[in-house]
Amino acid sequence: MTYEGTTNPDPAAHPSIASCAYDTAWVASLPDPDRPERPRFPAALEWVFEHQRPDGSWGGEIAYEHDRILSTLSALCAITRFKGDARTTRAVESGQRYIWQHAHALSREPVELVGFELLLPTLQSRAARAGVRLPSYLDIYAEQRRRKLAMIPSDLLYSPKVTIVHSLEFLGDEVDVDRLASVQWENGSVGSSPAATAFFLHKRESEAAVDYLRRCLELDGGAAVPVVHPCETYDLLWSAYHHFLGGARGPGLLPEATISALRAALDAGEGISASATFPLPDADDTAVAMLLLRSMGYDVKPDALSPFERDGHYASYPYERHASSGVNMHVLDTLKWMPSTQERDMKIGRILTFLADTRTHGTYWIDKWHISPYYATAHALAALADLPEPHSHVADELARTALDWVRQTQNADGSWGFYDRPTAEETAYGVLALRHARRLALPGDDWRLELAVDYLLSQQGAEHPPLWIEKCLYTPRNIVNAAIDAALQGASRRRVSEVRFLGTPDPLPRELAAGGGSARKRGPRGGRR
């Protein structure tokens, strides 16, 4: 399938990253410089009040406690900063109760959030000073925090060229205000993070930082902000990659200007980052950019991935504590498109060993950038498909066990969902997983795919719960919609025309709207938390 026109909406015209409570609360906590008893951004503070969940928490729709507890702490710090009325008291008591009831679940969840071991103790201290009562056992990450900070040379702690700048709010009262000036980027932000930028403004005034936060607020009507902005390159690359996994090919996968910028960066020996304003290349964006360009026929050398090579695997960024299985899957997928050499074969073999060793229960994968194993497992199956000899046997063995898990965990209505509910996004990954392993298909797979497509069509226009990992969970709408569109590409042309997740949805046909493909309600599933 060749795409003549771009598959991606303009990220500037259609902001992809949904707003979140964690960063919005940091912005809401900023005092007005002229009247410090009042908030600088009152609409943000009101948004925080309005988005407390019935159970007392803040955060994503799926109760992933790393996200809920960090977001709740951030929100409690904001609402106690300015108000002491009955509404605030009720909100604090409810949020406080949630933390006491759920803090014990942190150790049971499969992956942490970005910078969690650094941010939790800072927010815990901040909330306690505001009068919030918290369990003494909440911070179980003291040793991880020590190890993380020990990895980063002290002279780089305030460097804008190290990823820790994105989570700089972790410094709290220990910040060296005199060194803060060095961390601000040209776009006025600190690490393209509204939260880190708000922390910066707590310590020193900056009109450029205020302008950056205003631009972030404008993305969602002036009241809330996303966890990262801007990230237009990431948005375009990963939307295109999902279309690529669905079978789309051709230069229309990316805008011409993006193709030119990517080629120029790679030709200069540079990696690719999430945005033109984000000066920190990463292995994920670099690998996917290389793969897409190679698939379009451009000459791309594998050298751009060399800075990310480690002992037996590839790292996302320098100074990371945990390797990403997803990054290594995407590097593997990219290596398939590179010329066959002995060095390439050695790298493929090392990645296969890494992937075999990083499976959960020796069966499926979960990645540090997404809480659902269906995301990582679908991407793994795409990377494992069609590997050259002598690697195909090992790849097929890894794929068979993962495929069995995908098949056996599909719900009766055709959906997939690892936590307490099925989602269209995870169902799309289930479809892509089965499609990329057609050589290992079983007789019932076509029926499973039909059920899944029916479920996806029944979810037209539905909101997607946050499953992607940052400092909190978030939803990159364009990327998620691209995954769903890609899953539907294998359906008949009639079915694909029934739904377009990237644009304004068309009404469902009458026979489907009457219940032909609707999902049934269900109880919680027993996935590992």
TrEMBL record:
Q: Where are the transmembrane segments?
A: none
What sequence ranges are listed for the domain Squalene cyclase C-terminal?
A: 324-419
Basic residues compositional bias: what residue ranges?
Answer: 519-529
- GO molecular-function annotation terms? magnesium ion binding; terpene synthase activity
Q: Could you tell me the superkingdom of the organism this chain comes from? A: Bacteria
In residue numbers, the region (Disordered) covers: 504-529
Q: Which InterPro entries match?
A: SQ_cyclase_C, Terpene_synthase-like, Terpenoid_cyclase/PrenylTrfase
Instruction: Give any single GO term for biological process.
Output: diterpenoid biosynthetic process
| UniProt-listed SUPFAM superfamilies | Terpenoid cyclases/Protein prenyltransferases
Identification of the protein by name: Squalene cyclase C-terminal domain-containing protein
Please tell me the species this chain comes from.
Sorangium cellulosum
